[in-house]
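Q: Given only this backbone (139 positions), what sequence would you predict?
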């Protein structure tokens, strides 16, 4: 049995954000839970062995975080079409919403609109981080 999804949208305001309010998913045999993905990149010269890409650039950090999710999905033998839900954490809600089209451009080709949450936080793991994205996928 393959994975089947059914959108649940008692109200449709979320559709403008390219998301369903909920999805009923059946027929999965595996679930991938991803830790928060950010614009952290390896850097042998940095104190902790990593640095932050796109400092001060919300769109760049969103794109880098989504690319990190792509890498996890690929390693797990999945694609964006397997995403079940996303949680966006940001230190700047208005800035995130201003760059939200980067997410829409990334997810739209998959044909899915996974449920999501957007949360404003005071700070992420490194002060230069503007966004962190958690994802759950299933197949």
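A: Predicted residues:
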């Amino acid at each position: 049995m393959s994975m089947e999804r059914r959108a649940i949208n008692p109200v449709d305001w979320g559709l403008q954000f390219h998301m369903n309010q909920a999805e009923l998913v059946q027929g999965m045999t595996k679930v991938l839970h991803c830790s928060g993905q950010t614009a952290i990149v390896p850097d042998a010269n940095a104190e902790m062995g990593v640095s932050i890409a796109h400092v001060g650039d919300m769109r760049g950090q969103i794109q880098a975080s989504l690319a990190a999710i792509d890498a996890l999905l690929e390693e797990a033998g999945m694609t964006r079409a397997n995403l079940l839900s996303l949680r966006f954490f940001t230190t700047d809600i208005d800035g995130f919403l201003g760059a939200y089209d980067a997410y829409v451009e990334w997810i739209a080709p998959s044909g899915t609109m996974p449920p999501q949450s957007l949360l404003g936080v005071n700070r992420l793991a490194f002060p230069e981080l503007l966004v962190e994205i958690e994802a759950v996928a299933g197949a």
